[in-house]
Every structure is written in structure tokens, then in C-alpha cells.
Hints:
Strand content: 5-15%
Helix content: 40-55%
CATH topology of the largest domain: BirA Bifunctional Protein, domain 2
Number of helices: 13
Largest sheet: 4 strands, mixed
Number of strands: 7
Structural class: alpha+beta
Number of domains: 2
Strand order of the largest sheet: 1-5-6-7
Order of helices and strands: HHHHHEEHEEHEEHHHHHHE
Amino acid sequence: xxxxxxxxxxxxxxxxxxxxxxxxxxxxxxxxxxxxxxxxxxxxxxxxxxxxxxxxxxxxxxxxxxxxxxxxxxxxxxxxxxxxxxxxxxxxxxxxxxxxxxxxxxxxxxxxxxxxxxxxxxxxxxxxxxxxxxxxxxxxxxxxxxxxxxxxxxxxxxxxxxxxxxxxxxxxxxxxxxxxxxxxxxxxxxxxxxxxxxxxxxxxxxxxxxxxxxxxxxxxxxxxxxxxxxxxxxxxxxxxxxxxxxxxxxxxxxxxxxxxxxxxxxxxxxxxxxxxxxxxxxxxxxxxxxxxxxxxxxxxxxxxxxxxxxxxxxxxxxxxxxxxxxxxxxxxxxxxxxxxxxxxxxxxxxxxxx
Length: 354
């Protein structure tokens, strides 16, 4: 049997003894405790008990402890969180979500049946996009604020301005006719009424690049198809169709400058929202004469059976009759301003909110 040299055995024994001394528990009465080891244990214990005081004394990392009784007392003093969603908004638990998905599914099925493609845009847009369309007073109805880059932004109150921005962004690369639809979440900071919250979802169907009334007829057919799928008939709802050309003919008759057409349209679009006196005041502020104001307001009250009383150009009159032919049973009333102008057909009579 081989034996290790005496010096080697002595060295190994010494190391084993040193290891045992490091792991063995120490007590104040134990004479074998190393002073330096005792100091390390004392320092570590005082850190946990004294926290920052021990850290400042020894330069080590501190650990802060909190009494469970004190923590529960502090929590009781805190305000309980409100479990309701912000005013004017709503939650969609699974049972409500099933209904929403069912309804949105019909939106998409009908739109795709008629050859429309889906689009979307950010829910956050520049505030100027809506001011340009509806005037400065729209800012009182927006969820708007200044972001960290000092830019004025707003949660979208509707989809049409975003649609217009995206169409213009496409430019000449856009293949016409373009048939787009969207289902988007929108926000309006306004007085709530029954069935009208500050948050709603809007279904838009838009056609760009069709000069005739075929686009309007197709949109009407799509809406009728949607109602039919849901079991809704003409006994339940009615459709109204806008005509920008009727209003344009009225302004031409009263010699309202062509440059004033766009701002007049913005005012006319508020007729159902503002008192008559306010509409008259805003039209007068645009330089529209008293006779012209009376003519504009009278035209807004015209129904389809009375279009002969409105000085519409022969081509426009033919288009109205064509639309009636394409869409039998559809009532044309009154000649409100559509949401978009130029080569754009937009059925604004149906913007579902729920």
C-alpha cells in the first residue's frame, strides 16, 4: 500500500480542519470561532435587521424589510380602483363579443360579396385632418391632446377623413374604380344620449372613380342586402340619399361664388346639429346674402317628390331619375351634403352605432 508523505498528510488534514471550521455553527461561547468569521456573520445579520444603517456603517448592500401588518394598513388607506370602463365606453365580455363578431361578420360578408376590399388606419390622427373638414368647433367634440412632440393629435371621430387621406396618399397608383370598406372604432367627446356613447364602431363602404349614379345604386343595394340578412325590412328602416349637385345648383342660382362652396357645405352639414339661428349666423359670416340663405334652407327641406321646385341642371335631374330607376322604392330626401366630394360616392345615410 502506498502512503502519502507525512508533509502531504499534514497539509490535507489542515485544509479539512479549516473547511470544517468555516461551515461549523459558531456561538459567542465557542473559543474555536474565528474572529474574522464572527465579524462577517455579525455584519450580515445586522444588515438584515438594521437596513440602511448597517450599509452606511460597513459600506455593503442594504436590504429593507416591511412589517406585514404595516403593509396591510397602508393598502387599506389607498383608494379602491374603479372597475367600470371610462365614461361613454363599454366592455365586451365573451357573450357580448360573440354578438359583435356576428354583426361584424355580416358587415364583412356583404362588403366582400359586392367586391369591396378592407382597409384600416391609425385610431390616432392629426387634429388638423378633422378641423379642415368640419371647422374649428369640431375640437370641442374630439378626444384631442398635444403629444410629447408638441403635435396636436386626436382619436378619430369617424372614418371618412382617414379614408380621404389614404386615397390621396395613393395618388395615381390607385387603380380605379376603388371599392373599399372599413369597420373602425371611433371616439367623440360629446353629450351622451340613449344609444349614443362616446365610443362607437362605424362601418364605411366607399367607391372612388365612378362618375355616374351606379356607385350610389350599388351602395344602396349592399345596404338593402345587409338589412335583408338581418331580417330588417322597409317597415323598420328608411334610407336617405344626399345630392351635392342639388345644393350646388341652389348656390349658383343665388350667385354664391364657387370659392365659397366648400365652406358653405361645412355649415350645411351641421343643419341637424345646430339651431337654425346659428346656421343663419354662420352662413352670413361667409358672405352669403339673406336671399341665398333662405334659398339654401328651403332646399334642405325639399323631398324627392318636390325636386322639380329646385333649379337643378338637366344632367343632375337625369341622374336623380336614374338613381330612382336603379333603386326602386328608395326615397330621395333631403339634398344634404355628402361626406366627400369630387369623384366619390359615399352612402352616409347608414353609419351604424351601437
